[in-house]
Amino acid sequence: MRIAATTEADSGRAIWYHQERSLLSLGVWTERRPGRGEDAEPLLVHHVPTGGGIAAVFDGAGGAGAAAVEFPSGRRRTGAWTGARLARAAAESWFHATVADDVTSHNRSGHDDRTYGGAAGEATELEKHVAGALIPMRSARSTRLVGSIRRELPTTMAAVRYRRRRRRLACRTFWAGDSRAYALAHGTGLQALTRDHTVETDALDQLLQDPPMTNMICADRDFRIDHTDTEFDLPCVLVCATDGFFGYVDTPAHFECHLLRTLRDARDVADWADLLCARVTAYTADDASLTIVALGYRNLEHLQSTFAHRTDVVTRAYWEGSVHHDAPGFSEWRRRTWSQYRTGYERRMPPAHGRTT
Q: Nearest Cα to 167, choosing from 39, 308, 296, 74?
C-alpha cells in the first residue's frame, strides 16, 4: 500500500503530496483556529498492484456536535472532532478490506479487467464500518429529544473510490452531508460528482444561504451514505473538498479558479499544495481540507500544459471580470456568471432523490 508523503507546515496547517509516473496526489488541511479545527486529516491511499485508491475528506459538524468527548487519557475533544476522525479511520479500514477482496479476485481470474461489486452493497458495507466505529463512542448521556439539531459525533464525508481499467478510470463516489467530490476536466472544468444533503442544492444559493443539512454521519441516528458510479477517460483529475474550500467564494466558478491558478503557478506538487493552503486560508472563515488525485499524467508539467487553456478561460471569464462585493451590479454579475458556468458544473451531478447506480 502506498500512502502520500507528508510534510508539516506551521501550526494549524499541513500538506501531503506524492508524485510518480501517471500518479500525482496531494492533500491540504487547515484549521481556522489552530488546535480547535474539526476537519479530519484528508484520506489519500493508492494501491499500486491494483491501480486503485481512495480520496476522501471529513468535516465534523461543529454546531450539531459541540458536546465534549473525554478520552481515557483525559484529553477532551468535541463530538464533531471525534466523529470526523472516527469516520476517516473507518473509511480507510473499509478500503483496505475491499482492496484485499480485489487482490483475491485478481489472483483467481488472472487478469486486470476488474469490475465493481454492487454499488448498493458497497455503500451498505461502508455505512456499517462507519457506524461500527462511531456507535461504541456514544455518550451515556445521549439526548433522546426527537427533532433536536444536536447529533452525537456528527460529520460529513465525500469520498471517491477509483480503479484503473486500461485507459479508463472507474469511479464510485460516496457522500453524506455537504462535503463534495468533483472531476476536473480540461475541456469543461469542474464537475460535481455529489449533490449536497441540504434543503437547498443550487450551488450559488448555497453560498448565499448556508442551508441546514438533511443527512449526515452520526452515532445516535440513522444516516445514509449515497453513491454514484462514473467512468472517465484517462488522464483524469479527481477532487474532494470540505465546505471551507468552496463555501466562501464569490461564485462556484471561483473554486475552480483557485485550483487552476495555483496549479499554473506551482513549481512542483508540494508547491501546489502549499499554494492551495495559502490561498484557502486567505479567504475562508472555516476549517478546510482537500484532496486531489491526478491519474494518467506523465508529470506536473504535463498536467499544467493540459489545463493551460482552461486556466486562461476561467481566469478571463470569472477572475479578471470579477465585480467587487460593494459595487453596483454585483448580484446581477454573480447570477449571470453562475448561469454560464452551471451547465458544465452540474453535468455529472446525481439526481436530487439521492442514490444512483
A: 296
pLDDT band at 263 (very low <50, low <70, confident <90, very high): very high
Residue-level pLDDT at 99: 86
d(C-alpha 232, C-alpha 326), whole Å: 41
For residue 171, give the nearest of 189, 201, 191, 197 by alpha carbon.
Answer: 191
Which residues, at least 6 apart from 315, have a Cβ–Cβ distance to it below 8 Å? 257, 260, 261
- Between the alpha carbon of residue 302 and those of residues 22, 124, 264, 319, 336, the distances in Å are 10, 38, 11, 24, 33
Chain-centroid distance of CA 205 in Å reads 20
Q: How far is residue 218's CA from residue 61's CA, in Å, rounded to a whole number?
A: 10
Residue pair 317/309 in contact (Cβ under 8 Å)? The answer is no
What is the crossing angle of helices 252-265 and 330-345, to 10°? 70
Domain 2-345 top-level CATH class: alpha beta
